[in-house]
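Lecture notes, unit on binding sites. The following record was shown on slide 14. It pairs a sequence with protoporphyrin IX containing FE.
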Amino acid sequence: MIGSVDPTERSAAMTTAEIQGSLLDPEVQACPFGYHAQLRELAPVHRMPETGFYVISTYEDLKTVLSDPVTFSNDIMVEQLAGEAAADLGRMFDDHLAEVGWGHVQTLQRTDPPVHGRYRRLINRALTPGMVKAMIPSVTRIADELIDSFIDQGECDFIDAFAFPLPGLVIAEQIGLDSNAISTFKRWSDGMLAPAMGLLVDEASAQHYAEVEAEAQHYLAALFEERRANPTDDILSALLADSADGDEPLTMHELQNLMNQLITGGYTTTADSIGNAMLLLLEHPDQMELLRNDRSLLHNFADEALRHSSSVQGLFRRATVDTELSGVSIPANSILHTRYGSANWDEAMFPEAERFDITRSNASKHLSFSRGPHFCVGQPLAIQEMIIGFDRILDRLDNIQLAPGATLERTGGLIFYSLKELPITFTAS
Ligand code: HEM
Protein backbone atom coordinates (compact mmCIF):
# COMPACT_ATOMS: atom_id res chain seq x y z
CA MET A 1 0.00 0.00 0.00
CA ILE A 2 1.26 3.45 -0.82
CA GLY A 3 1.43 5.74 2.18
CA SER A 4 1.99 9.47 2.30
CA VAL A 5 2.05 12.22 4.85
CA ASP A 6 -0.34 15.15 4.67
CA PRO A 7 1.92 18.22 4.36
CA THR A 8 -0.41 20.17 6.65
CA GLU A 9 0.49 17.76 9.45
CA ARG A 10 4.14 18.61 9.23
CA SER A 11 5.56 20.69 12.06
CA ALA A 12 9.03 21.75 13.13
CA ALA A 13 8.68 19.46 16.13
CA MET A 14 8.52 16.38 13.93
CA THR A 15 11.78 14.53 14.05
CA THR A 16 13.37 11.25 13.26
CA ALA A 17 11.84 9.96 16.52
CA GLU A 18 8.40 10.07 14.91
CA ILE A 19 9.27 7.78 12.00
CA GLN A 20 7.09 4.68 12.15
CA GLY A 21 8.60 1.36 11.10
CA SER A 22 12.07 0.41 9.97
CA LEU A 23 13.93 -0.38 6.79
CA LEU A 24 15.03 -3.59 8.50
CA ASP A 25 11.40 -4.78 8.64
CA PRO A 26 10.84 -7.37 5.85
CA GLU A 27 7.36 -5.92 5.22
CA VAL A 28 8.83 -2.46 4.66
CA GLN A 29 11.51 -3.93 2.40
CA ALA A 30 8.82 -5.72 0.37
CA CYS A 31 6.92 -2.44 -0.12
CA PRO A 32 9.10 0.50 0.92
CA PHE A 33 7.15 3.33 -0.75
CA GLY A 34 5.03 4.49 2.21
CA TYR A 35 8.04 4.35 4.49
CA HIS A 36 10.09 6.39 2.04
CA ALA A 37 7.34 9.04 1.87
CA GLN A 38 7.52 9.39 5.66
CA LEU A 39 11.28 9.82 5.52
CA ARG A 40 11.20 12.46 2.80
CA GLU A 41 8.51 14.35 4.69
CA LEU A 42 9.69 14.05 8.29
CA ALA A 43 13.39 13.20 8.31
CA PRO A 44 15.03 13.44 4.88
CA VAL A 45 18.36 12.54 6.48
CA HIS A 46 17.38 9.85 8.96
CA ARG A 47 19.75 8.09 11.35
CA MET A 48 18.59 4.47 11.56
CA PRO A 49 18.56 3.70 15.29
CA GLU A 50 19.37 0.01 14.73
CA THR A 51 22.44 0.46 12.52
CA GLY A 52 23.53 4.09 12.87
CA PHE A 53 23.36 4.48 9.07
CA TYR A 54 22.15 7.85 7.75
CA VAL A 55 19.40 7.18 5.18
CA ILE A 56 19.42 9.77 2.37
CA SER A 57 15.93 9.89 0.91
CA THR A 58 15.36 13.05 -1.16
CA TYR A 59 16.43 13.59 -4.76
CA GLU A 60 18.47 16.75 -4.03
CA ASP A 61 20.34 15.33 -1.03
CA LEU A 62 21.10 12.10 -2.88
CA LYS A 63 22.43 14.02 -5.89
CA THR A 64 24.68 16.01 -3.53
CA VAL A 65 26.05 12.85 -1.91
CA LEU A 66 26.63 10.95 -5.16
CA SER A 67 28.34 13.91 -6.83
CA ASP A 68 30.83 14.51 -3.99
CA PRO A 69 33.20 11.54 -3.68
CA VAL A 70 35.65 13.60 -1.60
CA THR A 71 33.19 13.98 1.31
CA PHE A 72 31.27 10.75 0.65
CA SER A 73 33.64 7.88 -0.09
CA ASN A 74 33.03 4.50 -1.71
CA ASP A 75 35.99 2.99 0.12
CA ILE A 76 33.87 0.66 2.30
CA MET A 77 33.71 -3.10 2.73
CA VAL A 78 29.95 -3.45 2.27
CA GLU A 79 29.91 -7.03 3.54
CA GLN A 80 31.35 -5.79 6.84
CA LEU A 81 28.49 -3.36 7.52
CA ALA A 82 26.28 -6.10 8.95
CA GLY A 83 28.18 -6.30 12.27
CA GLU A 84 31.26 -8.00 13.75
CA ALA A 85 30.14 -11.59 13.12
CA ALA A 86 29.54 -10.83 9.44
CA ALA A 87 32.88 -9.03 9.25
CA ASP A 88 34.67 -12.10 10.64
CA LEU A 89 32.95 -14.36 8.10
CA GLY A 90 33.83 -11.89 5.34
CA ARG A 91 37.49 -12.08 6.36
CA MET A 92 37.34 -15.90 6.37
CA PHE A 93 35.92 -15.80 2.85
CA ASP A 94 38.68 -13.42 1.68
CA ASP A 95 41.48 -15.40 3.32
CA HIS A 96 40.29 -18.65 1.80
CA LEU A 97 39.83 -17.04 -1.61
CA ALA A 98 43.41 -15.75 -1.44
CA GLU A 99 44.57 -19.35 -0.81
CA VAL A 100 42.60 -21.05 -3.55
CA GLY A 101 42.27 -18.23 -6.09
CA TRP A 102 42.90 -14.48 -6.25
CA GLY A 103 42.06 -12.57 -3.03
CA HIS A 104 39.85 -9.50 -3.43
CA VAL A 105 41.51 -6.17 -4.06
CA GLN A 106 39.56 -2.90 -4.03
CA THR A 107 38.96 -1.70 -7.58
CA LEU A 108 36.46 0.51 -9.44
CA GLN A 109 33.26 0.64 -7.36
CA ARG A 110 35.16 0.34 -4.09
CA THR A 111 37.61 3.15 -4.90
CA ASP A 112 37.49 6.96 -4.99
CA PRO A 113 38.91 9.41 -7.54
CA PRO A 114 41.68 9.71 -8.63
CA VAL A 115 42.37 5.94 -8.24
CA HIS A 116 38.86 5.20 -9.52
CA GLY A 117 39.59 7.06 -12.78
CA ARG A 118 42.15 4.51 -13.98
CA TYR A 119 39.76 1.59 -13.51
CA ARG A 120 36.91 3.54 -15.02
CA ARG A 121 38.85 4.46 -18.17
CA LEU A 122 39.88 0.84 -18.63
CA ILE A 123 36.39 -0.58 -18.10
CA ASN A 124 34.72 2.11 -20.23
CA ARG A 125 36.57 0.59 -23.17
CA ALA A 126 34.92 -2.76 -22.47
CA LEU A 127 31.37 -1.43 -22.73
CA THR A 128 31.50 1.28 -25.40
CA PRO A 129 28.25 2.23 -27.15
CA GLY A 130 29.66 0.53 -30.28
CA MET A 131 30.27 -2.74 -28.44
CA VAL A 132 26.83 -2.65 -26.86
CA LYS A 133 25.29 -1.99 -30.30
CA ALA A 134 27.21 -4.93 -31.74
CA MET A 135 25.57 -7.14 -29.12
CA ILE A 136 22.02 -6.41 -30.43
CA PRO A 137 21.84 -9.55 -32.66
CA SER A 138 22.95 -11.87 -29.87
CA VAL A 139 20.63 -10.29 -27.27
CA THR A 140 17.74 -10.67 -29.77
CA ARG A 141 18.65 -14.30 -30.52
CA ILE A 142 18.93 -15.17 -26.82
CA ALA A 143 15.54 -13.52 -26.10
CA ASP A 144 13.90 -15.48 -28.94
CA GLU A 145 15.46 -18.79 -27.89
CA LEU A 146 14.20 -18.28 -24.36
CA ILE A 147 10.68 -17.49 -25.60
CA ASP A 148 10.84 -20.60 -27.87
CA SER A 149 11.47 -22.70 -24.78
CA PHE A 150 8.18 -21.75 -23.04
CA ILE A 151 5.82 -20.30 -25.66
CA ASP A 152 3.92 -23.56 -26.25
CA GLN A 153 3.06 -23.95 -22.58
CA GLY A 154 0.80 -20.87 -22.32
CA GLU A 155 2.25 -20.15 -18.89
CA CYS A 156 5.61 -19.75 -17.19
CA ASP A 157 7.40 -18.27 -14.25
CA PHE A 158 8.62 -15.13 -16.01
CA ILE A 159 11.53 -14.68 -13.55
CA ASP A 160 12.91 -18.18 -14.04
CA ALA A 161 12.11 -18.51 -17.75
CA PHE A 162 13.11 -15.05 -19.02
CA ALA A 163 14.12 -12.27 -16.59
CA PHE A 164 17.08 -14.16 -15.10
CA PRO A 165 18.41 -16.13 -18.06
CA LEU A 166 18.40 -13.17 -20.50
CA PRO A 167 21.07 -11.00 -18.82
CA GLY A 168 22.81 -14.13 -17.50
CA LEU A 169 23.26 -15.61 -20.97
CA VAL A 170 24.34 -12.24 -22.41
CA ILE A 171 27.26 -11.99 -19.97
CA ALA A 172 27.94 -15.74 -20.05
CA GLU A 173 28.40 -15.53 -23.84
CA GLN A 174 30.86 -12.70 -23.33
CA ILE A 175 33.00 -15.02 -21.24
CA GLY A 176 32.77 -17.87 -23.68
CA LEU A 177 30.11 -20.02 -21.97
CA ASP A 178 27.34 -21.54 -24.09
CA SER A 179 23.67 -21.68 -23.13
CA ASN A 180 24.10 -25.14 -21.56
CA ALA A 181 26.44 -23.62 -19.02
CA ILE A 182 23.96 -21.09 -17.62
CA SER A 183 23.62 -23.09 -14.38
CA THR A 184 27.41 -22.97 -13.94
CA PHE A 185 27.33 -19.23 -14.55
CA LYS A 186 24.50 -18.73 -12.04
CA ARG A 187 26.40 -20.76 -9.42
CA TRP A 188 29.50 -18.61 -9.95
CA SER A 189 27.50 -15.41 -9.74
CA ASP A 190 25.75 -16.60 -6.55
CA GLY A 191 29.16 -17.42 -5.05
CA MET A 192 30.46 -13.96 -5.87
CA LEU A 193 27.35 -12.29 -4.42
CA ALA A 194 27.26 -14.47 -1.29
CA PRO A 195 29.20 -12.08 1.02
CA ALA A 196 27.00 -9.09 0.14
CA MET A 197 23.79 -11.15 0.33
CA GLY A 198 24.43 -12.36 3.90
CA LEU A 199 24.86 -15.99 2.78
CA LEU A 200 28.02 -16.49 4.84
CA VAL A 201 26.54 -18.03 7.98
CA ASP A 202 29.47 -20.07 9.28
CA GLU A 203 33.05 -21.05 8.43
CA ALA A 204 31.91 -23.89 6.15
CA SER A 205 29.69 -21.60 4.04
CA ALA A 206 32.43 -18.93 3.87
CA GLN A 207 34.86 -21.55 2.53
CA HIS A 208 32.28 -23.05 0.19
CA TYR A 209 31.43 -19.74 -1.51
CA ALA A 210 35.12 -18.75 -1.71
CA GLU A 211 35.76 -22.01 -3.56
CA VAL A 212 32.88 -21.33 -5.94
CA GLU A 213 34.33 -17.90 -6.75
CA ALA A 214 37.82 -19.41 -7.13
CA GLU A 215 36.44 -21.91 -9.66
CA ALA A 216 35.16 -18.99 -11.74
CA GLN A 217 38.48 -17.16 -11.30
CA HIS A 218 40.52 -20.10 -12.61
CA TYR A 219 38.24 -20.36 -15.64
CA LEU A 220 38.57 -16.60 -16.27
CA ALA A 221 42.36 -16.61 -15.75
CA ALA A 222 42.75 -19.24 -18.47
CA LEU A 223 40.45 -17.24 -20.74
CA PHE A 224 42.40 -14.03 -20.13
CA GLU A 225 45.61 -15.81 -21.16
CA GLU A 226 43.89 -17.08 -24.31
CA ARG A 227 42.60 -13.56 -25.16
CA ARG A 228 46.02 -12.07 -24.49
CA ALA A 229 47.38 -14.35 -27.22
CA ASN A 230 44.36 -14.07 -29.55
CA PRO A 231 42.27 -10.93 -28.89
CA THR A 232 38.63 -10.89 -30.05
CA ASP A 233 35.99 -8.17 -29.85
CA ASP A 234 34.71 -9.20 -26.42
CA ILE A 235 34.85 -7.54 -22.99
CA LEU A 236 37.85 -9.56 -21.81
CA SER A 237 39.99 -8.57 -24.78
CA ALA A 238 39.05 -4.91 -24.26
CA LEU A 239 40.18 -5.08 -20.61
CA LEU A 240 43.58 -6.44 -21.71
CA ALA A 241 44.23 -3.96 -24.52
CA ASP A 242 46.87 -1.27 -23.96
CA SER A 243 45.44 1.97 -22.61
CA ALA A 244 45.67 5.07 -24.80
CA ASP A 245 45.87 7.19 -21.61
CA GLY A 246 49.15 5.71 -20.43
CA ASP A 247 47.42 3.82 -17.60
CA GLU A 248 49.24 0.83 -16.11
CA PRO A 249 47.85 -2.48 -17.45
CA LEU A 250 45.60 -4.35 -15.02
CA THR A 251 47.11 -7.10 -12.87
CA MET A 252 45.38 -10.51 -12.66
CA HIS A 253 44.06 -9.60 -9.18
CA GLU A 254 42.54 -6.42 -10.62
CA LEU A 255 41.16 -8.21 -13.67
CA GLN A 256 39.51 -10.79 -11.42
CA ASN A 257 37.95 -8.10 -9.25
CA LEU A 258 36.64 -6.20 -12.28
CA MET A 259 35.09 -9.37 -13.68
CA ASN A 260 33.48 -9.96 -10.28
CA GLN A 261 31.94 -6.46 -10.48
CA LEU A 262 30.79 -6.92 -14.08
CA ILE A 263 29.18 -10.26 -13.28
CA THR A 264 27.60 -9.33 -9.94
CA GLY A 265 26.74 -5.78 -11.07
CA GLY A 266 25.30 -6.80 -14.40
CA TYR A 267 23.32 -9.95 -13.77
CA THR A 268 20.82 -9.87 -10.91
CA THR A 269 20.32 -6.08 -11.17
CA THR A 270 19.16 -6.40 -14.78
CA ALA A 271 17.20 -9.59 -14.11
CA ASP A 272 15.34 -7.92 -11.23
CA SER A 273 14.66 -4.85 -13.41
CA ILE A 274 13.12 -7.01 -16.15
CA GLY A 275 10.96 -8.82 -13.57
CA ASN A 276 9.85 -5.57 -11.89
CA ALA A 277 9.07 -4.00 -15.28
CA MET A 278 6.87 -6.95 -16.27
CA LEU A 279 4.95 -6.75 -12.99
CA LEU A 280 4.32 -3.04 -13.62
CA LEU A 281 2.89 -3.85 -17.07
CA LEU A 282 0.67 -6.58 -15.58
CA GLU A 283 -0.61 -4.14 -12.97
CA HIS A 284 -1.20 -1.42 -15.60
CA PRO A 285 -2.81 -3.11 -18.64
CA ASP A 286 -3.42 0.32 -20.25
CA GLN A 287 0.33 0.96 -20.24
CA MET A 288 1.01 -2.54 -21.64
CA GLU A 289 -1.43 -1.81 -24.49
CA LEU A 290 0.15 1.57 -25.15
CA LEU A 291 3.59 -0.01 -25.34
CA ARG A 292 2.37 -2.88 -27.50
CA ASN A 293 1.02 -0.38 -30.03
CA ASP A 294 3.91 2.10 -29.91
CA ARG A 295 7.34 0.55 -29.55
CA SER A 296 9.04 3.94 -29.82
CA LEU A 297 8.10 4.16 -26.11
CA LEU A 298 10.30 1.17 -25.17
CA HIS A 299 13.26 3.25 -24.00
CA ASN A 300 11.11 5.57 -21.88
CA PHE A 301 9.22 2.55 -20.54
CA ALA A 302 12.53 1.00 -19.40
CA ASP A 303 13.49 4.21 -17.60
CA GLU A 304 10.06 4.67 -16.04
CA ALA A 305 10.07 1.06 -14.78
CA LEU A 306 13.55 1.63 -13.32
CA ARG A 307 12.38 4.87 -11.72
CA HIS A 308 9.24 3.36 -10.26
CA SER A 309 10.60 0.02 -9.02
CA SER A 310 14.36 0.41 -8.82
CA SER A 311 16.04 -2.98 -8.57
CA VAL A 312 18.82 -1.42 -6.49
CA GLN A 313 16.96 0.41 -3.72
CA GLY A 314 20.03 1.56 -1.83
CA LEU A 315 23.82 1.36 -1.49
CA PHE A 316 26.37 2.95 0.81
CA ARG A 317 28.88 5.76 1.24
CA ARG A 318 31.21 6.72 4.13
CA ALA A 319 31.57 10.31 5.34
CA THR A 320 35.27 11.20 5.24
CA VAL A 321 34.89 14.32 7.47
CA ASP A 322 32.35 15.81 9.87
CA THR A 323 29.69 17.21 7.58
CA GLU A 324 26.08 18.36 7.40
CA LEU A 325 23.21 17.57 5.07
CA SER A 326 19.74 19.17 5.20
CA GLY A 327 20.54 20.51 8.66
CA VAL A 328 21.59 17.13 10.08
CA SER A 329 25.15 16.74 11.39
CA ILE A 330 26.93 13.64 10.12
CA PRO A 331 30.14 12.73 11.96
CA ALA A 332 33.23 11.55 10.05
CA ASN A 333 33.23 7.81 9.30
CA SER A 334 29.43 7.53 9.46
CA ILE A 335 27.86 5.22 6.90
CA LEU A 336 25.26 6.75 4.59
CA HIS A 337 22.57 4.59 2.97
CA THR A 338 21.92 6.10 -0.49
CA ARG A 339 18.25 5.36 -1.03
CA TYR A 340 17.81 5.55 -4.84
CA GLY A 341 14.33 4.00 -4.56
CA SER A 342 13.14 6.92 -2.40
CA ALA A 343 14.74 9.72 -4.44
CA ASN A 344 12.97 8.30 -7.51
CA TRP A 345 9.61 8.97 -5.82
CA ASP A 346 10.45 12.49 -4.70
CA GLU A 347 7.45 14.62 -5.74
CA ALA A 348 9.68 17.68 -6.07
CA MET A 349 11.27 15.95 -9.06
CA PHE A 350 8.59 13.52 -10.24
CA PRO A 351 5.02 14.86 -9.82
CA GLU A 352 2.51 12.07 -9.08
CA ALA A 353 5.52 9.89 -8.48
CA GLU A 354 3.51 6.81 -7.54
CA ARG A 355 1.89 6.78 -11.00
CA PHE A 356 3.54 4.41 -13.51
CA ASP A 357 3.46 6.44 -16.72
CA ILE A 358 5.58 5.27 -19.66
CA THR A 359 5.17 8.69 -21.29
CA ARG A 360 6.57 10.59 -18.25
CA SER A 361 8.74 13.31 -19.77
CA ASN A 362 11.58 13.19 -17.22
CA ALA A 363 11.58 9.43 -16.46
CA SER A 364 15.25 9.17 -17.48
CA LYS A 365 16.26 11.51 -14.63
CA HIS A 366 15.86 8.64 -12.13
CA LEU A 367 18.85 7.77 -9.95
CA SER A 368 18.59 3.98 -10.26
CA PHE A 369 21.94 3.90 -12.09
CA SER A 370 23.39 6.34 -9.54
CA ARG A 371 25.12 9.57 -10.57
CA GLY A 372 28.60 11.08 -10.43
CA PRO A 373 31.82 9.12 -10.94
CA HIS A 374 30.27 5.73 -10.16
CA PHE A 375 27.33 6.09 -12.57
CA CYS A 376 26.60 2.54 -13.76
CA VAL A 377 29.01 1.52 -16.50
CA GLY A 378 26.51 -1.10 -17.71
CA GLN A 379 23.57 1.30 -18.17
CA PRO A 380 23.53 1.17 -22.00
CA LEU A 381 23.65 -2.64 -21.96
CA ALA A 382 20.95 -2.95 -19.28
CA ILE A 383 18.61 -0.57 -21.15
CA GLN A 384 19.29 -2.41 -24.41
CA GLU A 385 18.45 -5.76 -22.82
CA MET A 386 15.20 -4.37 -21.44
CA ILE A 387 14.22 -2.80 -24.78
CA ILE A 388 14.98 -5.91 -26.83
CA GLY A 389 13.55 -8.29 -24.24
CA PHE A 390 10.17 -6.53 -24.05
CA ASP A 391 10.03 -5.92 -27.79
CA ARG A 392 10.36 -9.67 -28.43
CA ILE A 393 7.92 -10.56 -25.61
CA LEU A 394 5.26 -8.16 -26.94
CA ASP A 395 5.78 -9.37 -30.51
CA ARG A 396 5.36 -13.01 -29.61
CA LEU A 397 2.96 -13.14 -26.63
CA ASP A 398 -0.61 -11.84 -26.40
CA ASN A 399 -3.02 -11.60 -23.44
CA ILE A 400 -0.20 -11.58 -20.91
CA GLN A 401 -1.65 -11.77 -17.40
CA LEU A 402 -0.69 -12.61 -13.87
CA ALA A 403 -1.54 -16.30 -13.30
CA PRO A 404 -4.75 -16.75 -11.27
CA GLY A 405 -4.05 -17.17 -7.56
CA ALA A 406 -0.41 -16.06 -7.88
CA THR A 407 1.05 -14.67 -4.67
CA LEU A 408 4.10 -12.51 -5.08
CA GLU A 409 7.03 -12.52 -2.72
CA ARG A 410 10.19 -10.45 -2.67
CA THR A 411 13.63 -11.32 -1.38
CA GLY A 412 14.56 -9.17 1.60
CA GLY A 413 17.49 -6.92 2.40
CA LEU A 414 18.41 -3.25 2.26
CA ILE A 415 19.89 -3.29 -1.23
CA PHE A 416 17.83 -5.22 -3.76
CA TYR A 417 14.15 -5.09 -4.79
CA SER A 418 13.67 -8.47 -6.31
CA LEU A 419 10.72 -10.74 -7.12
CA LYS A 420 11.17 -14.42 -6.27
CA GLU A 421 8.63 -15.57 -8.89
CA LEU A 422 6.23 -14.02 -11.38
CA PRO A 423 3.80 -16.66 -12.72
CA ILE A 424 2.11 -15.46 -15.92
CA THR A 425 -0.28 -16.84 -18.53
CA PHE A 426 -0.40 -15.82 -22.20
CA THR A 427 -1.32 -16.92 -25.71
CA ALA A 428 1.15 -17.19 -28.56
CA SER A 429 0.73 -14.41 -31.13
C1 HEM B 1 19.13 -2.36 -14.63
C2 HEM B 1 20.29 -2.88 -14.32
C3 HEM B 1 21.32 -2.20 -13.46
C4 HEM B 1 21.16 -1.41 -12.37
C5 HEM B 1 19.86 -0.97 -11.70
C6 HEM B 1 22.49 -1.01 -11.93
C7 HEM B 1 22.75 -0.17 -10.86
C8 HEM B 1 24.00 0.35 -10.57
C9 HEM B 1 24.26 1.35 -9.56
C10 HEM B 1 23.22 1.98 -8.66
C11 HEM B 1 25.60 1.61 -9.58
C12 HEM B 1 26.34 2.67 -8.79
C13 HEM B 1 26.98 2.23 -7.54
C14 HEM B 1 27.40 3.39 -6.69
O1 HEM B 1 26.85 4.49 -6.79
O2 HEM B 1 28.30 3.17 -5.87
C15 HEM B 1 26.19 0.75 -10.58
C16 HEM B 1 27.54 0.68 -10.86
C17 HEM B 1 28.09 -0.30 -11.66
N1 HEM B 1 27.42 -1.16 -12.49
FE1 HEM B 1 25.43 -1.28 -12.73
N2 HEM B 1 23.41 -1.60 -12.76
C18 HEM B 1 22.75 -2.31 -13.72
C19 HEM B 1 23.30 -3.03 -14.77
C20 HEM B 1 24.65 -3.22 -14.95
C21 HEM B 1 25.25 -3.99 -16.03
C22 HEM B 1 24.47 -4.68 -17.15
C23 HEM B 1 26.61 -4.00 -15.80
C24 HEM B 1 27.71 -4.66 -16.57
C25 HEM B 1 27.61 -5.52 -17.52
C26 HEM B 1 26.85 -3.20 -14.61
C27 HEM B 1 28.08 -2.98 -14.05
C28 HEM B 1 28.33 -1.99 -13.10
C29 HEM B 1 29.67 -1.65 -12.63
C30 HEM B 1 30.98 -2.32 -13.06
C31 HEM B 1 29.53 -0.58 -11.74
C32 HEM B 1 30.62 0.18 -10.98
C33 HEM B 1 30.92 1.48 -11.70
C34 HEM B 1 31.90 2.39 -10.99
O3 HEM B 1 32.06 2.27 -9.75
O4 HEM B 1 32.51 3.24 -11.65
N3 HEM B 1 25.65 -2.74 -14.14
N4 HEM B 1 25.19 0.01 -11.18
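Take-home: The pocket of protoporphyrin IX containing FE is lined by residues 74, 108-109, 120, 261-262, 265-266, 269-270, 273, 311-312, 315, 368-370, 374, 376-378, 381-382 (CB under 6 Å).
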